Amino acid sequence: MRTALASLGALALLGAGAAWWVTAPDPISAAELSGISGDATRGEILFAAAGCASCHVAPDTPAADAPVLSGGQRFVTQFGTFVAPNISPSPQGVGNWTDADLINAVMRGVSPEGQHYYPAFPWNAYNKADVQDIADLVAYLRTLPPSAAESLPHEIPFPFNIRRSVGGWKLLFEDRDFVVQGDLTPEQTRGRYLVEALGHCGECHTPRNALGGLRRASWLAGAPDPAGDGHNPNITPAGLKWTEAQIVAMLQSGFTPEFDVVGGEMAEVVANTSQLSDEDRRAMAAYLKIVTPVDSPAPKPGTGDSSAEEAG
Question: How many whole angstroms separate alpha carbon 75 and alpha carbon 66?
Fold first, then answer.
């Protein structure tokens, strides 16, 4: 009996050690980042493309040329409430972080202390970005006004508050490959990069499974709002019937072909895409036209769905 119990104990320890090992963070190595330095001027447009201010500016803060990334916005989900942190260049924010710390946070979801970040932070899209682009974005972030606001803790119940479990989530659902593959034109390739990586459009417009992983087979086919406050529309060609020119116009002005204007979170998106070049907006439209058409099921009554034509 003692031998059996000892064997079981050894197996349990071995299993726990293996689980700890496979769920460890996977940062980009120092060698891969060697020699990379950021360009703040170039980083400004990348900052807009990535939509950083949309989440990290404090709630009800007026728009500004130099946003203060003090955090505080709350994002309610089925797993708990996530609170955007202060990422301004202050000691309370990320002012004491190295460039490598910031690049790993953005692209690998790993904190300077070696903890996993929850996928509410869209590192699972940013992981497809070019390292140089993220270095440029980091350089621009360091030029923004500092904030002394303390980052507020997430409100996550057990067992989701176990950070190490995010390592298991990454094993199951992290994907560093683009969804749309094949022989793409340079314009479509650029659009894929803007939509799938920097713009992280799939984070809102793709349905998720019970554990919060993206259902990539239904890429951009529409999804319930995580807060239960409506439905993000289907923007595959099966749901979004606009021409490329109409998509480009909406991304620049927010006006739809029906002489309506986008609202809610999509208005924040347009505030970012309006800062891109005409070429980049055309690239995004060209990409959306080659996404596999997927019919999305009708949302449940009372979810406040908006069609693609209404919400963009």
Answer: 23
Does residue 91 have a cis bond before it (omega within 30 degrees)?
Answer: no
% of the chain residues with pLDDT over 70 = 87
Task: Output the DSSP codes for the chain.
Answer: -HHHHHHHHHHHHHHHHHHHHHTS--PPPHHHHTT----HHHHHHHHHHHTHHHHHSPTTPPP-SS-------EEEETTEEEEPPP-SSSTTTTTTS-HHHHHHHHHH-B-TTSPBPPTTS-HHHHTTS-HHHHHHHHHHHTTSPP--PPPPPPB--TTTT-TTHHHHHHHHH---S-SS-SS--HHHHHHHIIIIIIS-THHHHS-B-TTS-B-GGGTTS-EE-TTSS-EEPP-STTT----HHHHHHHHHH-B-TTS-B--HHHHHHHHHHTTS-HHHHHHHHHHHTTSPP-PPPPPPTTS-B--HHHH-
Nearest Cα to Cα of residue 271 among 249, 248, 252, 244 = 252
What does the pLDDT look like over 203-252, one tens digit per residue?
999 999 999 999 999 999 999 887 667 889 999 999 999 999 999 999 99
Q: Does domain 33-173 have CATH number 1.10.760.10?
A: yes
- Check if the beta carbon of residue 41 is closer than 8 Å to that of residue 139: no
**Nearest C-alpha neighbor of 235 from the set 209, 253, 256:** 256
User: Which residues neighbour 29 within 8 Å (Cβ) at sequence distance 6 or greater?
Assistant: none
Q: Three-class SS string for 162-199?
A: CCCHHHHHHHHHCCCCCCCCCCCCHHHHHHHHHHHHHC
What residues does CATH 1.10.760.10 cover in the chain? 33-173
Each residue of 62-100: pLDDT tens digit?
A: 777 789 999 999 999 999 999 999 999 999 999 999 999
As a whole-number percent, the residues of the chain with pLDDT over 90 amount to: 74
